[in-house]
Structures are given as C-alpha cells and as structure tokens.
Input
Amino acid sequence: MQISGKKGEILNKPLMSKPHILFHRPTPWQSELQCSTKTYAQLFSEAGYPVTYLQANSNLAHLALRKGYYHTYKLGSRFEGNIWVTGALSAIPHMDNKGKTLAQLTAANSYLTAMPSIKKLVSAGGHGAPQIIWTTIPGSSALKRIYPKAKLFFHVVDMYSAYRGSGIEYLEKTDYQKADHLFVIGQALQNYLQEKFQVPAEKITNLGQGVHLDQYEGTVAKPTALENIKGPVAMWIGLTRKLDQSMLSALSQAMQERGGSVVLIGPPCDWLPEFVEKHSNTHFLGPIKAAEVPAYLRHAQLGIMTYDRSRQEIYKGQHPLKLYEYAAAGLPVLCTPHEEFDTLQPPILEVRNEAETKEGVKSVFENYEAHKSAMLAFAQKHSWRSCKLRAEEAFQKLDAL
Output
C-alpha cells in the first residue's frame, strides 16, 4: 500500500490486523500541549494499531480571517511517525456556545459539510475506515453518521457547560445516547454523567489520568534556565491564567523566607508582568516543550496547583494531569480543593487561602522526605500504560477488537 508522507515521499505501509482508531480532539498535533488524547494516540500506535488523529474542524470564517483553527488546517494532512494527522475545513461552523438552537443546527453539519469530506481525508492515510472512533468534542457523534459501522467511544474530559454555556448540554445528551461507551478521566465526571444525563454506570469506564514513568528515570542535567535561580524552587507548569494571584503571592513570600524561588512555566497572561516585577523571587520562563518538562520538575522541590478560587465552577470535575507529572518527579504538592481528590485521595497538601498556603510551605519542608516518598509511591500506581490497558478492556467487551 503506497501513501504520501509528510514531505510527499512514498511510504510502504503494511496491512494491519488491529482495528483502525480515529482519535478526535481540538488540541493541534503540533501544539506543545500534550493532552491525554494525543498520548493515547501515540500509545496505541506504538502497540501496532493504525491510528488517525482528526483535529478540530476549521471553517470558512477561520480561513478568511486567518484565525481559529486556520493555522492547524493550513499545515495539511500528513504522517507524524505512523500516525495520520488531518483536519477538515467545514462550510458550516460548529457554534456550540451560542445556545441550544444553533448548537443543534450546526454541530452535525460542521462534520457533514467538510471540503473535502472527512471520509476522504481519513482514507488518504491508507488505514481504511475506522472501526473505533475516540472523540472528546461535544457534537461529534455526527462521525457515527459518516462511519455507521464503527464503535463510538466518547472520552469526557470536562464539564463543558461550565465554560461553553448550557446550550452544549443538548449536544452532550445526544452524544452520550449515541455512544457505544463512555470514557471519563475521573470519578467526579462519572458521577456527573450518571446524575446529569442518566448514563448507566455499566456504560462508563473510568480511565483516570497518568504519567510516563520512564521519563522520570535516571539522571538529568539541570536546565540552563534554572542555573541562576535560588533554591528551593516551587514550580508551576501550565496555563498561568489559571493561578490564584493572592495565594501565589503568599507562596512567593513563604519561599522567599526560606531563601527560595517560585518558577512559572507556560503561556503568559495579562497580570503576570506586574506580578513578577512585584515579587523579586518569582521567575517567569515562558512555555517549554513537553519533552523538557521532566528535567525542569526534577530540579524543583515543590509543585504548585493553587487554582483561581474565583472561577471554581470552571474547575469542577477537572483532574489535572500536572498532579501526576509532579508526583513522578517526587514533588510535594500544594493544591486548592478538587472534587476528584475526594475519591482519589492523592498525598497532597490541600490549601484554601493565603494563610494555609504559607503553613503548607512550612509543613512540606519540615517533613520533606516523607512527602516526597508518598508522591513517588502515588505515581507508581498511575502510568499511562495502565490507563491504555483499561481502554483496551472496554474495547474487548464491546467486540471492537
């Protein structure tokens, strides 16, 4: 079988007996953000499955204004390793945040009006029609109309209405009814699906979240950007706009009292320059590549997960991946409350205000090795490979394999 590769070369692709999996998520493949769906796509590809990664649909408005998913679409279809990466251009935009009526009218049609068709884009990878559809996007059950013989698995990674509006709940209800099975990232989301949408428990598999443990093995050199920063170091990696400023200020003060620093890694936000100027021991390093994360974390002493308390509804049901990265690096963690942690019981130090943040820093360093050992033990129970095996078990139960 001959297929055009990333630069137009001809690739000889062997026929595969394992089912073709079509993964679908907005996160661009080229993005430094390593979402769970990209991780699963890589793991299944490494295990010999034919894999396609379908990015979010761009549309004619994106194309005209060169905004939205235009830059993702512009890169075109290509192989990234053995994974076929593609994205559609739709005549009708997916307007899931504009109320129930527009969500209902546009969701399916954004898939059905793709130019060229999604079926053509996917088939260009040479894997044939997918037998499994793994999607995270509300409204994407329309893919089942394109591939009626495929098993449809929805991977629910958020309470979408918290930030997309209640209109999206119509799409969710339709999607979850059409899905053959649902994956969730945690118990809080499973409870939500059962209570809000009456999804039967037997239709849901909790995959949890994970970490690549092998990336935290052996010795690693200290990144150059950390060489002149005084330790101990408290570190945040992620979207800086999600941080609670008051608690971060308290953390900076507590670390300064110990002669240490705060390091923030990720995209900038509007309040960050003023904050860094005010707190001399706080350093903003900007975003880094996903492959560089372990080296930075392994040269820190404390993990930061103090989320903005004024936006708690947005974080409801979330299950942050950074918890597992911090744990694999052996970092004690200061974290604002998460509903998921009521069930998961990670060995974190939960903090709710500035005073508890300062006390949390003191508690960590008074009994550091015990906190570190507890986090390392927690990480060992949560690898991405174990999550992938749970997904395969669900496939087998539905005769998808």
